[in-house]
């Protein structure tokens, strides 16, 4: 069910960050600008041209490949009349939310980027499996054997502020009541090193998980979206929680996930690797690095 692994997500976001860097740099590129100094060491300049060349060496090939792949997927989607609905994207994202949170190594916070990758992955799956047929009997059998995978627990998206004592917790509550931003206070005053830089963001916490203490869970369950908690004692002082969003428990029926199951089983039968480069020959792709450099 979970196709987007954390390592893949990290790669995706890394490439997206690289894209942003290159876009910003090249957008300012113009006549005579490549020789301007961007740094100097003991009087010796590092030129803009050297900088851009270094960035191209480091990120250029992967970024060009990603750009080609996006164009390839768009062309093939039109050719075979294949699309990915927002409902499909949201369902996959919900499954990721139920499995990962800020305490997971490599956790990522950018919802827009993750959903973009989900869309790309689903489109690729559909293209690779478009000609594979699986009987309803086999699909139903898989669903019945793995039905638990298609249940999303109740989840709450939390932010937190950790402080060492009750007096500081009371001061945080006062500032919140006076209109201060929870996120800004978390970044400024929270002593939790992992969540403070994220504005206190804990991500989506499953109701049946063990991340929160029983006392914290009981307190959070009394809150509605947009409310913050009273101070909750913890091993490192006190915690104040803020409910940013909630997701109700949901169970997907066989009908809702039938096509998803078909693709999953079909992918095990497809010989082509699950990557957009598998379709380059079909669209006669030619690029700067040559046909033998698609890996």
UniProtKB/TrEMBL annotation:
Q: Which InterPro entries match?
A: PPIase_dom_sf (IPR046357), PPIase_PpiC (IPR000297), PPIase_PpiC_CS (IPR023058), PrsA_foldase (IPR050245), Trigger_fact/SurA_dom_sf (IPR027304)
Instruction: Tell me the domain of life.
Output: Bacteria
Alphabetically list the UniProt keywords: Isomerase, Rotamase, Signal
Q: Determine if Signal is one of this entry's keywords.
A: yes
An MF annotation (GO) of this entry: peptidyl-prolyl cis-trans isomerase activity
Question: What is the catalytic activity of this protein?
Answer: [protein]-peptidylproline (omega=180) = [protein]-peptidylproline (omega=0)
One Pfam annotation, family name? Rotamase_2
Domain PpiC residues, every copy: 153-245
Identification of the protein by name: peptidylprolyl isomerase
Lineage, broadest ranks = Bacteria, Bacillati, Bacillota, Bacilli, Bacillales
């Amino acid at each position: 069910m979970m196709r987007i692994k954390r390592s893949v997500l990290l790669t995706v976001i890394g490439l997206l960050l690289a894209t942003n860097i290159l876009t910003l740099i090249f957008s300012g590129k113009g006549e005579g600008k490549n020789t301007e100094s961007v740094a100097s060491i003991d009087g010796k300049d590092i030129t803009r041209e050297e900088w851009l060349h270094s960035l191209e060496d480091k990120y250029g090939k992967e970024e060009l490949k990603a750009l080609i792949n996006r164009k390839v997927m768009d062309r093939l989607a039109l050719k075979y009349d294949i699309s990915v609905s927002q409902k499909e994207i949201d369902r996959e994202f919900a499954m990721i939310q139920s499995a990962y949170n800020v305490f997971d190594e490599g956790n990522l916070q950018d919802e827009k980027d993750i959903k973009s990758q989900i869309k790309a992955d689903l489109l690729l799956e559909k293209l690779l499996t478009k000609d594979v047929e699986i009987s309803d009997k086999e699909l139903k059998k898989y669903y019945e054997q793995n039905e638990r995978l298609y249940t999303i627990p109740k989840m709450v998206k939390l932010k937190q502020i950790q402080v060492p004592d009750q007096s500081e917790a009371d001061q945080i509550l006062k500032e919140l009541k006076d209109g201060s931003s929870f996120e800004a206070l978390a970044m400024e005053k929270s002593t939790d090193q992992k969540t403070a830089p994220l504005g206190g963001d804990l991500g989506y916490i499953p109701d049946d998980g063990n991340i929160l203490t029983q006392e914290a869970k009981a307190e959070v369950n009394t809150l509605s979206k947009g409310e913050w908690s009273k101070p909750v004692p913890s091993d490192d002082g006190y915690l104040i929680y803020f409910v940013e969003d909630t997701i109700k428990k949901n169970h997907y029926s066989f009908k809702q996930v039938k096509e998803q199951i078909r693709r999953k089983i079909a992918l095990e039968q497809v010989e082509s690797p699950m990557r957009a480069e598998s379709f380059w020959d079909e669209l006669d792709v030619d690029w700067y690095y040559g046909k033998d450099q698609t890996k």
